[in-house]
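User: I'm new to structure prediction. If I give you an amino acid sequence, what do you actually give back? Let's try with this one:
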Amino acid sequence: MKALVITDGTESIQSIALLIKESLESFSVKICSAQDFQGTDLLAAGVFFIGCEKSSPSSFAFLEEMLNHINLASRKCGIFSSKEKTIKYLHNILKSCEADTFELLTPENSNIKKTDIKKWLKPFLK
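Assistant: Good question. You get back a string of structure tokens that encode the predicted 3D arrangement of the chain. For your 126 residues, that looks like this:
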């Protein structure tokens, strides 16, 4: 199965994206920044993940627009950030596409462990 991880490209979010990729051993995982995101990448993925540090990064404009016009009700989406306000933003941009979301709020300025990621990923493996 294919998985896609879309990020804002910040260092902290990229490090979580890499842990997701390492933890999804039976998946073919592609990590891309939102500015390099292409809609066909999302359509090919069985599950997808979106993470950013701050709400409404300019690089998410195309992604927001696409999610507004597509139905992903059969897909699971993981959202992640270190800020609760950003998690709310990510939930909002996913509302209209109806993807089933699972959130991961990481403590700011702390090291998240692979075991934390694996625990969070369990619903995606069912």
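You can read the tokens as a compact description of the fold. Here is one thing that stands out. Residues 11-23 form the longest helix (13 residues).
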